[in-house]
## 1
Amino acid sequence: MSSTFGTLFKITTFGESHCRGVGVIVDGVPPGMALTESDVQTQLDRRRPGQNSLTTPRDEADQVSIQSGTEFEKTLGTPISMFVANKDQRPKDYGEMADIPRPSHADYTYMKKYGIKASSGGGRSSARETIGRVAAGSVAEKFLKEKYGIEIVAWVSSAGDVEAGPIDINTITRKAVDASPVRCPDEETAELMVKEIEAVRDASDSTGGTVSCVCRGVPPGWGEPVFDKLEAMLAHAMLSIPATKGFEIGSGFAGTALKGSEHNDPFIQKGDRLGTLTNHSGGVQGGISNGEPITFKLAFKPPATIGQAQKTAGFDGSNVTLEAKGRHDPCVVPRAVPIVEAMAALVLADAALQQEARATTAV
């Protein structure tokens, strides 16, 4: 199983949903950067369960502890280990599901691949694994902000069939995103999204949605063609997030309906560099950043575990009715926002170090 992501800025996550804790080891963080738990905790607080009535009621504070890689609140350039304890585990909620693979969950596929699976909470396939990603992403984001001035903001652009209107990617802030419990900066649409999620929650059901993201201030020249193009690495990172089912960058699928004359991004002078008049490319051309904002959208399916009784089959093939217990989100997109930001930061931090290495070795 691959639990490691990245080339030079590299992370390895560990832990399961109902073990003693989860965390991450981050390698490649430059030395001398100020770093404390408070730098990481903000994003973990945005990701944690039990924030409001739209999320799982699992009660976890998700307090992070930095165990290595820093001294006197400065990074040493050595691997950074961060740990978050699981305090509200309830493995007994999953007792009667031990012999029944939950529909559209990872129980069956993990069993077929490894011959064994975690008995509760999905194990490594649980979204609880993303705590390590968010912790590591916070470190990557701090590096990107301090050295390059890069800003990363994600928001909920749809929940169920409720879709937000256009958002100004040049001015959107996390404060505006967090003004609503559903994390949609369009106030009118956010209210409709809340009602949509409340309705499926009350029906013991679930719904999907999309998260959009903008990365501002990325310099031109990042990305490693041909197989590690910047958009390819972003897609790799985003589609590794639990419950994801689709990724598009720039104009995405809608761009297929345009003519080349409509879709092309003409170059213009912007201060001391070339820029583009439009941004259908989403900030990436030829797999390399072009200096424009990087924009992409990610699709999340409805959470697989629901409270309704479902007719399915056990591992032995017998017909059964599954009435799942446990605590689950009726819609994952509000809590997915900081996870998307974290994975974007990890990709960009790795791209930054690769470009720096190229510059220092050039002759």
## 2
Amino acid sequence: MKVVFINTDDYLGGAAIACKRIAKSLGENFDIDVKILVKEKKFNDNFIVPYKDSFFYKWKSFLDFAFERAYFTLFEKSKDVRFAFSPANFGTDISKHPLIQEADIIHLHFVNFGFLSVTDIQKLVETGKPIVWTMHDMWLFTGGCHHSGFDESYMTGCGTCEQYLKNPSGNDLSKKVYDRKIEAFKNLGKAVFVGCSQWLANRAKNSLLLKNRNVTSIPNPIDTRLFQPLEKEACRRELGLDTGKQYILFVAMKASVLWKGWTYLQQALEILIFENKVDYGTEILILGESDPEVMSLIPFKTHLLGRINDTGKISKIYNAADVFVIPSIMENLPNTIMEAMSVGLPCVGFEIGGIPEMIEHKKTGYLAEYKSAEDFARGITWVLNESDKKKLSENSRKKAEEQYAEKTVAGKYFRVYEELLQ
């Protein structure tokens, strides 16, 4: 069986990470020839193939991304939502690529930011090959936004998009993008749409675009051998951290992204200081891209670790922390929670999206009231000062092994492929 995965790149964000983990596990545990076709390749994995490696294509690829963003600036409500909405006007027709032509199944992941336009997606549909689409956010079944929040216009076809567009109307950009998607999927044959969380799958099932389609839920996988509990003090010494401190860990590809909820974490940390709820020696670890000026406002000593691609080192950072915090206000099934749970690190997050499917309140962490910085601070305090940390750690690790192990998740995808090809 030959399966081609399609993702914008092999290095940015949770979709790229999950895509590689699924492909790797399918290749190792099942008789499947898996290749990942990307717009941009950074790592040397031989199962990842760039669409083209020429200077001309790289220049075109950059322009597609630039034009896509520039086009949306004509409609955006503010620059805060610039990367939260993808019109998918610009991209590349990859339907004639040898990997597409040879594949038994086309498996799409995240394809935005100038890789595939809606028209390019339609060309893949027109190949007639069975399609699996793993949804890492809501973009597939909305009028262009990656997360709709509490707006449920996608159930009727979008339009009047007040959250993202400066001039919402019944025939605005979100309505036009949705209509193009309806047209692109008009002749869709065999297909399965996979939500990484049950929450996302349920939303997809209620959308106008996918309500009569085959929609299921399969979580993202985690390598429980790589992300496993290690001796905390040893990890801290190796990372140059103080073995006598308490560490709060925050992880995001880019902390300033609207739905990552940074302001709620900042408010929660201010509450902890004001109410003297944490030990004076508590410090913050920030993994991912961050603005030093913004981070300087945190009322704790902060370690800006930047972006790190070494997964072994990332595992040690999780192991060095005492609690993982994820203040996201819109979220699917975050890889970061999975990574934390796999090393036995308790988590604190808001009760939103797929997070409640992962964090079991006071069993693997603390579920805070949505958008309540006060309850978020209460959760951090509970984990650090009041909980049975050993039990929390054991429960987290057990859940990761039972539900998110790579071989378990790959087996679910293998069964989806078999059913599609019957």
## 3
Amino acid sequence: MTTPTFTPRHVLRGHRGNVFCLALSADGKTLVTGSKDTNVRSWDVASGQLKHTMGGSKSPIMGIAASPDGKLAASGNVTNQVLFWDVAAGKEGAKYSGGTGHHGTVNGLAFAHDGSFVLSVADDRKVMRWDAAKGKQRAVMNKHEAPVLCVAVSPDNKRCVSAGSDGTARIWDLETNEQLHVIKAGPESVMTAAWSPDGSLIATGGNEETIRLWNPETGEPVKDFPTGVQSVFSLAFSPDSQWLAMAGSDNAFYLWTIENPALTPANSDPSQGDQRLLVKGHQNHINSLAWSTDGKTIVTASKDETARVWVQG
């Protein structure tokens, strides 16, 4: 197995405040970011150029998702709003009717891989499904016992996994809106979850210095391994599902082998006594990352008020 290496290509500056979230279009050409400054920005990944700055949120943007074609985005903020954006035009898109949304900070969003719907999760413990083109709420799933912090959609768009402050990850059937499995992911908050592109694994991470892998068919544990990082904020699988990228509270991101994470890849950090492949560059915590579907690009968003583009090679 060839160890991937990533080098910095672009530093994306413009936000005035913590860049809490990002999302990458399926073709890897368009990046959208959300920040404490209440703005959503869209970027050309190849050139690193800012395309649009979109205002309209009443509070910091905490979560964001992009449609596969990069033309639409959905964001969530501190003041309960799910907002839809016409990224191609650089303006606010469809609006939902007042009173039909979340009650509490909207922490995370995820688009279906075919663009047919978008999911949002919030402090009100709910998972909501939306028609992004119309800004209409379509379903509500409500079994969590504490704020929900993240959500990811299965590759076939038939299920999702949500996770949060109740220490669980929950797998849902999106055709029936029924809960399929409750995963006891840890005693601490589960802050991030990712579904592997081949559908075989779910990865979770949070405030316990551990990445855990799960079987999505049964909800049973597969393996876990220590990270050496106090908080894990974001996880993303490589397109071939052989690697896992992790970002967290120590200003770097890491790559782990899925097959045998106990093996030490080249360029790891032996002083840590673990298997991490370390990529440095940010000056503060990395809140979010995404791995392009062609495997050649990783993008990161940080508390240092920048987003960054990293390319393989």
## 4
Amino acid sequence: MNLLTPNLDSAFKKRASHISALSPALQKAQSDAFSHFHTLSFPSNKLDHWKYTDLPQQSLPMFTPPIAIEPNVPFQQLQSLLMDPHSLTLVLFSNEVAVKTPDQPWFSANPTSPDWKFDPLRHSSLDALNMAFSGNEFHIRIPDHSITEAPIYIYHITESFQDPVLINPRHHITVGKNAQATLIEVYLSVGQSPSFTNTVTDITLAENACLTHLFLQKGSPQSLQIAKIHIDQDKHSQYVGNSIMLGGSVNRAAFHINLNESFATCQFSALQMAKETQRLDLDFCVQHYKPNCDSKIISRSVIQGNGKSAFTGKIAVQKNATKTTAQLENKNLLLSATAEANTRPQLEIDNDDVQCTHGATVGHLDPDALFYLISRGIKTEDARQLLIQAFIYPSLQTLPTVSLPYLENLIHEY
């Protein structure tokens, strides 16, 4: 039996009245997902993709999805956590809408689509858990031939001040044919009690669509943040992705990108910054299915104290995906003797007509470079910061411009 089952059985029954108000198809999907969850084991480091992240199994039974949300922190006090308080789109307290920009035709929650169904062959235990308790499913659809001038912001603020809570955000993002958009997802944990945020985001890019996407996780010292992001791309589409992990007890994000048609491109940058006893894990996979597709992945990690980071990156080129160009790079900077970095860049290529590279490094600050800066009159700590900033700079080049001041302040705290 799954470790979380006893608490979740009770919580699922209490949500019965809420579930009954949903569409019959969605109600059945959630019930099927919860039944499937009973048959699955919880992820552990015995699984290859979870090799470097072992969730605290002994503490998992204490997490319970909240039945009703009453924010304990006034929204005004949380404005300092927001990237642009004057351009809000959607703010959620523990997965319940707190603030939403009105009259946005591209936004909908819990649509009554008859196509809802749960496929047990495609979902892990965390996917099933997310579907069963997602509560609010948010859909963003960018119409064909449209350009969104301002970024679309989604802030998830998980509050945990008393009982440990389990939150299951679920998003579906569709960018139409010839459309362009910028999406910024921010996941924040506040409070003194443990919290567990289990996120699933599905993104679909139609022909010639372009999406710039920032996925930011910033947890409190006792938070667990687990995320799975799935992206499907049509021909000539462009996905520019960014992942930033800061704070939290355990942060993990898995990005699975499918280049399903010719001339699709993916450019992805990631930054992990761990300190104290934090555990950060980025799992990445790009599948090239058709000819003339390009992908470029750059990842940087800065680890200090007893922190640990992990990177598993895979580029898979299928038999028919000729003329593929792919680059995978992961570099790790250790700032203490007890810091730890684990990296596994992988290539899986089934044809010869490709240009693919991959590589990884783990090391400390260059003592010669540090000495050079100090010898020019720069203070030791300032010299260290300059070298760290130079190291992480490549992972920040594709960030949405509007996010840079906010992220620079967060990074400076580390």
